[in-house]
Amino acid sequence: MARVRPILAASCIIAACTPAAAPFGARERAAVADSVRELAARLAAQISAHGYRGFPPAMDSAPGYVWAYNGFIAFPSFDSMAAWTRTDPEPTVPEVFAWDSVRVEPLAPGIAGVAATYTETRPDSTGRPQTEKGVFTAVAVHRSGGWKLTTAHTSTLPRRLRRPSPPPGVADG
């Protein structure tokens, strides 16, 4: 017991000297949300400019990356997603990718949940524009190179489940 007391005392002193974690108040939460929204805006611009090749710069290449799509694990790793995007040719006809809404929930310093709806218009194999709507969710993590998305999921909305547009001149409510 005599040997345990000095170790216990040293442990208590070290624990008491450990700096307290920085507060994660409203200001810090707003800063996280704003910076993750900036990442989402850059991602939309990259996809519009480069098609699916725009995804990798926004995604986390750390181990543990996964992306589910419409009920299955489409990409069990960053490398599998990056390889798939390289098979997508650079668009010759402009693609339009836009977030309809983006919700960011700051969880802690350096981590946030993202839930967004999107509209994407891409040419089909005949060159005719095809519009797809969907939902995207992910975890945003702050790395040394900035914010990245991981543990992602995308669900596309079947056309029959899409809410019809209101007639011209009628407010959508």
Please tally the helical runs, counting DSSP H or I stretches of 4 or more residues: 3
Distance between the termini: 72 Å
CATH architecture: Roll
Q: What fold name stands as the CATH topology?
A: Nuclear Transport Factor 2, Chain: A
Please state how the strands of the largest beta sheet are arranged side by side. 2-1-6-5-4-3
The rough form would be described as globular
Assign a percent range to the helix content. 25-40%
Count up the domains.
1
Low-confidence stretches: none
Order of helices and strands: HHEEHEEEE
CATH class: Alpha Beta
Q: State the total count of DSSP E strands.
A: 6
Please report which band the strand proportion falls in: under 5%, 5-15%, 15-25%, 25-35%, 35-45% or over 45%: 25-35%
Mean pLDDT: 86
Major sheet details: 6 strands, mixed
Radius of gyration over alpha carbons? 22 Å
Query: Structural class, please?
Result: alpha+beta
